[in-house]
Amino acid sequence: MDMQESLAALCACSGPSGREGDVRALAMELLQPLVDEVWADPFGNIAGVRRCGRENAKRVVLDAHLDEVGLVITGAEEGFLRFRAVGGIDPRMLPNREVTLMTQPPTFGLVAVLPPHVQKPGDGDKSVPLSKLYIDAGLTQEGGEALVGTFAVPRGQCRQLLNQRLSAKAMDDRAGFVTLLRTAELLKDVPLDVDLYILGSSREEVNGGGALVGAYSIAPHCFVAVDVTHARTPDGPKEGTFSQGKGTVIGIGPNITRWMGARLVEKAKEREIPWTSEVMTGHSGTNAWRVQTAREGIATAVLSLPLKYMHSPVETLDWSDLESTAALLAAFVQDLEKEGGAYLAD
C-alpha cells in the first residue's frame, strides 16, 4: 500500500464532524487488507481487529479520528449563504477561501469578501467574524434556502513540499489514521500476543463522542490516541510547539497512564526511534481525555504528530514523523502481554 497516496485520498474526502460517510467508506477499504475483520458502528466509527489467535486475549486499541472541522449552512440572503462553524474554525483563514458544499453532487462555492477598493478605512487590517461572512455559490434565494442544514468543508488538495513535507486539509487527523495503517502494515508478519484494534473515530472535533462509544464497545485493556500537536513556526511560541522531522511526540501528564507513557519512552530509546515529550498538565485535547473514564476506567496514552497551520486547508507535516510514530506504536504493541502483562490484568 502506498501510504502517501492513501493520505492524499483520505484528505480529499469531505468529512466534517457528524458527516464522515465518504471518508469512513475509504478508511474501511484501506484498513480491510491489514486486519481480520472490519466494521462500522451506529455512531459513525469504523474499526478493524487483528486477532492474535489466543483465547481471551487482551485488547489494545489504537485510535485516530476521521472527522475534520467544517461549516454548516444556517440561512441565505439574496442567494448568499450564511453559515456557522463545525469545530474550531479560525475565521481569519476563510475570506476568499474555496469550499465544497456537501450536496449531491457536491457544489463549489467561495467565501465572499469585499475587495479593498470598497472597504472602509482600516477594515483591511481587521479579521472578519464568522457572523459577517457568507458563501457565494451562484444561487438564487430559493436555492440558498434549500441548502440550510447542508455541511461544507474548505477545499484543498494534498501537495508535496520539499524535504518530506506534505500539505493538505484534514491532516488533523487523517494523518493519524494513516499512521495506524502504517503500524498495522509494519506488524503484518509479526506475531502478536494481544488482539489489536484499529479505530477510526467520529466527531472528535465537536465532542469526542466517537472514541468514547468505540472504546465502550470494544472494552480495551489500553488505548492509544494518535493525534496532532503544534509544530514550531517562526511566529509561534517556543514552549508547547515541536520541531518537525525530529520524531514522534509522547504525551506525559495526568491523562496518560504512567505505565503506558513509560513503555513508549522505553521502546523509543530501545529502538532508537526519534521522539520528544509533551507535558499535558490537564486536558490532552485528544480522544484519550474522554476514553479514560469509559466503563470502569481505561488506561490511555497519547502520541502526536507535529503539525503546522492546524485547522486550516494547508495543514503541513513531515512524513518522517509519521514513520517514527508508526514504528513506535508497532514496538509498543509487540510482546505487550509478555512484557506488560501485570499492567494489563483485568
Describe the structure.
This protein has 346 residues and is α+β, with helices and mostly antiparallel strands. It is built from nine helices and 17 strands. Helix 1 runs antiparallel to helix 2 and helix 6 crosses helix 8. It is globular and about 65 Å long. The two termini are 36 Å apart.
Helix and strand content put the structural class at alpha+beta
Shape category? globular
N-to-C SSE series?
HHEEEEEEEEHEEEHEHEEHEHEEHH
Question: What is the count of helical runs?
Answer: 9
Helix content: 25-40%
Major β-sheet strand ordering: 1-2-12-3-13-16-14-15
Low-confidence stretches: none
Averaged pLDDT, please? 92
Summarize the structure.
With 346 residues, the protein is an alpha+beta fold.
Secondary structure layout plus pairing:
Elements: H1 3-12, H2 21-31, E1 37-40, E2 46-50, E3 59-65, E4 70-77, E5 80-86, E6 98-101, E7 107-111, E8 135-136, H3 141-145, E9 151-154, E10 159-160, E11 165-168, H4 171-186, E12 195-201, H5 209-218, E13 222-230, E14 248-252, H6 258-271, E15 275-279, H7 288-291, E16 299-307, E17 315-318, H8 319-333, H9 336-340
Main features:
6-stranded antiparallel beta sheet; 9 helices; globular; 8-stranded mixed beta sheet; 346 residues; alpha+beta
